[in-house]
Design goal:
Layout lengths: L2 H11 L11 E5 L2 E4 L4 E4 L2 H4 L8 H13 L10 H14 L3 E5 L2 H20 L5 E5 L8 H6 L16 E4 L4 H6 L5 E6 L2 E2 L5 E2 L2 H14 L2 E5 L23 E4 L10 E5 L20 H13 L2 H20 L5 E7 L2 E6 L5 H11 L1 E2 L1 E3 L2 E4 L7 H15 L1
Parallel strand pairs: 3-15, 5-6, 5-7, 7-10, 10-11
Antiparallel strand pairs: 1-2, 2-3, 4-12, 8-9, 11-12, 13-14, 14-17, 16-17
């Protein structure tokens, strides 16, 4: 099909909830994508952090193909090897006790909120279900995770929203204390606020919140949907902050392109979900779990070291260009935000770059780079050259 034919079908049969750029992707290899017209693009998006191993990774492809030929799906009333192996790999490397498998970031965060409230109910009874989140956060698009999101622009249209959330300022412990009360059961936060603009939290603040949670017997919930699975240069971002959360959510890059997510629990709340208290039809899907096992096998220590090196290289190169429309960079690993200055908006700049052959994202008022973790030096340099020539 041509681009125009695909676009026409989209406009006629698909709900128009996305403002798409004029690209119809056809296939990819590594961090390079080709559209239906054969045009090449360097991908600095990885499907918003999903394609952690890029496109057509041979080991990932082999794992998916072999599992699809054996068992594509089985309900959670029965056991299957892939999800059990994955659970062991995840919990061992993250220092957690057990995991519930879900299908998306929003669903994982919803499960994390449910777990926190049930833990509090089991221990303290009713009236202690409030979760503190941070302003400028983003936790998903279900009714509950929209309510948890600390951005006013998401709190429209879908009334009534789920109750039980209060918002504090990032990097301000006094603000957290000011919204605390006897009805609080947990604090939930992204260690790098992704959709809010790629804003890493200060390490002392995170450690102070962890200490406050321990003192008040609140759960510390960390949303690693975007920061997890090697994106920031460690398997999970919390491993760079000197904390051990009570609960961690993850999704996006875990299965290298397939829908998958989950919630990991520490010892404090590992036995909260009992038979019948939570569930999902597709959670732990064998094909996606096999893909995730392969992703974790690839993302070892030396691989993660290279992710940090690549992130430093991209940031240094972008700042060294001294482009008048771009400012400072920020982030961890291959989760990079770039300030936009001057008269053009971030979306205008993104449109120009995509037209020139560089797929890129926006976040908050800036640009966002989430390239595949396997991106090569040649692909980075090609993308940087497009960025330099297009925006100078």
């Amino acid at each position: 099909m041509t681009f125009e034919e695909i676009k026409a079908l989209d406009e006629q049969y698909v709900m128009q909830s996305y403002t798409r750029f004029p690209v119809a992707a056809d296939h990819g290899k590594g961090a390079t994508v080709w559209d239906v017209d054969g045009r090449e693009y360097i991908d600095f998006t990885s499907g918003i952090g999903v394609n952690s191993l890029g496109y057509a990774h041979p080991l990932w492809l082999q794992a998916v193909t072999e599992q699809a030929g054996k068992l594509a799906h089985i309900c959670n009333l029965f056991y299957a090897e892939p999800y059990a192996k994955l659970a062991q790999k995840l919990c061992t490397r993250a220092g957690m006790v057990n995991v519930f498998f879900a299908n998306s970031g929003a669903e994982s965060n919803e499960g994390m909120i449910k777990l926190a409230r049930k833990w509090s109910f089991d221990k303290y009874g009713k009236g202690r279900g409030t979760v503190i989140t941070l302003r400028n956060s983003f936790h998903g698009r279900t009714i509950t995770t929209l309510a948890a999101t600390g951005q006013d622009k998401f709190h429209d249209y879908f009334f009534p929203f789920t109750e039980g959330f209060r918002y504090a300022d990032a990097n301000d412990l006094d603000s957290v204390a000011a919204v605390a009360g006897h009805d609080v059961c947990a604090v939930m936060m992204e260690l790098v606020q992704g959709e809010g603009g790629v804003l890493p939290l200060d390490q002392p603040f995170v450690q102070e919140v962890a200490a406050l949670c321990a003192k008040r017997d609140w759960l510390l919930l960390v949303d690693e949907v975007q920061t997890g699975v090697g994106r920031t240069g460690t398997l999970f971002a919390f491993q760079q902050y000197g904390i051990q959360p009570d609960v961690v959510s993850f999704a996006k890059g875990i299965a290298g392109g397939l829908p998958f997510g989950g919630v990991m629990a520490g010892e404090k709340c590992a036995r909260v979900f009992t038979s019948g208290t939570h569930g999902t039809t597709f959670g732990g899907n064998p094909v996606a779990a096999a893909a995730a096992c392969q992703v974790l096998d690839v993302i070892d220590g030396p691989f993660l070291d290279r992710v940090q090196e690549k992130g430093r290289y991209l940031r240094e190169q972008i700042e060294g260009m001294n482009l008048p429309c771009l400012g400072k960079t920020r982030g961890l690993g291959l989760m990079i935000g770039v300030e936009v200055t001057g008269e053009r908006s971030n979306r205008e700049l993104a449109a120009r770059l995509i037209e020139s052959g560089l797929l890129i994202l926006t976040a908050g008022p800036g640009l966002r780079l989430l390239p595949p973790l396997v991106i090569t030096q040649e692909e980075m340099d090609k993308g940087l050259a497009i960025l330099r020539e297009t925006l100078r």
